[in-house]
Design goal:
Blueprint (H helix, E strand, L loop, with lengths): L3 H4 L2 H4 L9 H5 L12 E4 L3 H12 L4 E4 L7 H4 L17 E3 L36 H5 L9 H14 L24 H13 L4 E2 L33 H4 L1 H6 L3 E3 L3 E7 L6 E8 L2 E6 L3 E3 L2 H11 L21 E4 L2 E5 L14 E3 L15 E5 L4 H10 L4 H9 L4 E8 L8 E8 L5 E6 L4 H20 L4 E5 L2 E5 L25 E3 L14 H20 L1
Parallel strand pairs: 1-2, 1-9, 2-5, 3-16, 9-19
Antiparallel strand pairs: 4-12, 6-7, 7-8, 10-18, 11-14, 11-17, 12-13, 13-14, 15-16
Bound molecules: flavin-adenine dinucleotide and iron/sulfur cluster (SF4).
């Protein structure tokens, strides 16, 4: 494999003078006209979109990514303040329904160049080989149209490009990381102590956070503001890991451009380009190929909103697959109080974890499993945790003033994909006059049993570490699925290379293509899947 700098020079394209953004690169960026028929237009410049952009710019394609949000500048836009970071999230209206509706906002969305990863927590584990065949192995979920070894080289590439630091990983496909683990904060020490007392294996990492200098990106300074956007540029996000290299190779990133519809040719059924709104004006970008990477809710919504005479029920929705099998990880969160000060905020939020409970255990009353990680909420999120327990007024104040004494763990439970958990279009319209997404979500018995077991393990770990009080809340984490990859058009929307079954020049390269979600955080897998799709596209064009 060529050296990382030969494949992706982003970290060396950032300034080396104490500032965080290469303004010259942005000013000199290539700009295509709407009337140019470019090779590829990408909707969304987050985890999946940016990797595709960078890879195909390097392959010499004329490629542009349109993102609904701003082109962030870490110096000007990142504030080390929870409340001041609300502009980072997708806050347009959405309807939520089902028996267990999923609240939408800061915890599961992003808007702007870099996508949700500009304020993600930085944890980057791989999926396990078993995640790709849960139906065949465990009789639940779905089988991917590709197996783990086909993704492994792309995991390795992306781990070098972010880059990832962590201990050697014993679970799934055992592997090492390019950088050594970070020192452990107070929360992580408590996790390791409690786990050791119970005989549970735990490890430090993997985090996509520079551990030492990487190009012109400095070392992490452990201030714990990863979820507000890292002002230091130590934490990886596409804004600094893939976009600079894409620009240097002739790609355009068009910010503040909301794509409203994919245009489909009535005769050929092929994509012609995308309609979008910029500065209040409706515009149309022609392209030989379209890729959608707008995240699990907005991607299916765009396909449904692009209904036309060829696809009256939504683009690629001939077999009623668009929007289905949307998944969210169950994420119960358990906090424990300690007499000594913990100061859980002083480190990247997820730092230590265990995947010992990831796989199906025949001794338990559920299939598949969960992982457990440190989570370290900042004060406002901590107040939400305490208030969700019913504490208010004086009691809430007391918990808040005791903040530095608490440690906090979170589980990621592999809730199963179900056809009824889906995005449809609501009656309500957004500011562009487009129907908003209605996201219906209901848990199954397997999901509830998993979350209960995860809670019990977390409570045991904190008690074993010496906590004198333990409190748990139920919540959700990452979203994936909604336009899944499959072997055929009757059970999914795209093939193993993210190509639409219905529209030969339409691709989907974000988290919505994942058929299962594992109990691992998804960003690394989304980037690896997009890198694989890009490799396939470039090779096909070469042929
Ligand atoms: C608070 C938080 C913490 C997280 N922590 C972790 C973690 O530690 N580890 C991990 O692996 N994952 C984490 N995640 C999840 C991870 O960030 C996402 O899974 C990942 O970024 C999703 O990638 P994507 O390409 O599907 O979408 P995104 O990265 O969200 O990108 C989608 C982009 O599309 C744009 N867009 C959408 N619709 C349109 C449209 N119609 N027109 C133009 N642009 C559009 C959006 O503005 C956005 O920039 C976290 C997420 C959040 C919110
Ligand atoms: S803890 Fe490290 S990675 Fe997180 S915001 Fe601070 S410097 Fe960035």
């Amino acid at each position: 494999m060529p050296g990382v700098r030969d494949r992706n020079e982003s970290a060396w394209l950032l300034p080396n003078d104490g500032s965080r953004t290469n303004h010259r690169l942005r000013a000199d960026m290539r700009r295509f006209a709407d009337t140019d028929e470019i090779d590829l237009v990408i909707v969304g410049c987050g985890a999946g979109g940016s990797v595709l952009l960078q890879r195909l710019a390097r392959a010499g394609w004329r490629v542009a990514a349109l993102d609904a949000g701003p082109f962030w500048d870490p110096d000007a836009d990142w504030v080390s303040d929870e409340a001041g970071s609300h502009r980072l999230y997708w806050t347009d209206p959405r309807v939520i329904s089902g028996t267990d509706p999923v609240p939408m906002g800061s915890n599961n969305s992003g808007r702007g160049v870099g996508g949700s990863m500009v304020h993600y927590a930085g944890y980057t584990p791989r999926f396990h080989p078993s995640d790709f065949a849960t139906l065949a192995r465990d009789g639940v979920g779905a089988d991917w149209p590709l197996a783990y070894p086909e993704l492994r080289p792309y995991y390795e590439q992306i781990e070098q490009e972010l880059p990832v630091a962590g201990e050697r990983w014993p679970w799934g496909d055992p592997h090492g990381y390019p950088y050594r683990p970070h020192p452990v904060g107070g929360n992580g020490e408590i996790f390791l102590r409690g786990a050791r007392a119970l005989g549970i294996e735990a490890r430090v990492g993997p985090v996509a956070i520079a551990n030492g200098r990487f190009g012109n990106r400095p070392h992490c300074i452990y201030r714990g503001f990863c979820l507000q956007g890292c002002k230091v540029n130590a934490k990886a996000s596409p804004l600094i890991t893939h976009v600079p290299d894409a620009l240097a190779h002739g790609a355009e990133v068009r910010a503040d451009s909301m794509v409203t519809r994919i245009a489909i040719d009535r005769e050929s059924g092929r994509a012609l380009g995308v309609h979008y709104v910029r500065d209040g004006r409706e515009r149309f970008q022609r392209a030989a190929m379209v890729a959608v990477a707008g995240y699990s809710i907005e991607t299916p919504r765009l396909l449904l909103n692009s209904a036309c005479s060829r696809f009256p029920d939504g683009v690629g929705n001939d077999f009623d697959q668009v929007g289905r099998y949307l998944m969210v990880q169950g994420a119960p969160q358990t906090a424990g109080r300690f007499d000594a000060e913990v100061r859980m905020y002083k480190a990247p939020p997820p730092e230590v974890s265990t995947e010992q409970f990831y796989e199906t255990d025949p001794a338990r009353d559920f299939r598949r499993g969960f992982s457990i990680q440190t989570v370290s909420p900042l004060p406002i999120t901590w107040a939400e945790h305490v208030a969700a327990q019913g504490h208010w007024g004086g009691a809430l104040r007391e918990y808040m003033s005791d903040y530095v004494h608490w440690a906090c763990l979170g589980a990621l439970c592999e809730f199963l994909p179900q056809p009824g958990n889906r995005v449809t279009l609501a009656e309500e319209k957004d500011r562009y006059g487009l129907p908003v997404a209605d996201f219906s979500y209901s848990q199954c018995d397997n999901d509830r049993a998993q979350a209960k077991a995860a809670q019990s393990v977390m409570e045991d770990i904190l008690h074993a570490a010496g906590a004198d009080e333990v409190i748990t809340i139920q919540r959700y984490a990452h979203l994936v699925g909604g336009a899944r990859m499959a072997r055929d058009q009757y059970s999914g929307v795209v093939d193993q290379f993210c190509r639409s079954f219905a529209v030969p020049n339409l691709y989907i390269t974000d988290g919505s293509v994942l058929p299962t979600q594992g109990a691992a955080n998804p960003a690394l897998t989304i980037m690896a899947v997009a890198a694989r799709a890009a490799g396939h596209l470039a090779a096909r064009a070469g042929r």
